Task: structure prediction
Amino acid sequence: MHAWPAPTVPRLPGSGLPLHVHDTSTGGPVETRPGATARLYVCGITPYDAAHLGHANTYVAFDLMQRAWRDAGHVVHCVQNVTDVDDPLLERAN
Result:
């Protein structure tokens, strides 16, 4: 399996604020504390039909999360998959 190379991200002066995310179990914000290396697994879109704007939400949200962690000085390891590319989708594409 081949992975895309990680882009070079320039260092900015200063340090970013801690990242907070919404915790659905408590109904409020929670500060993330990833340690020196932040690890992120993102379940990608499940393409059943034509792409739409909602698919961009996954990419934008987790890209912003990575950028906030990098700005706070963390090394980020991110893995993302694309699921369920199956026969009905390929038939529609034809």
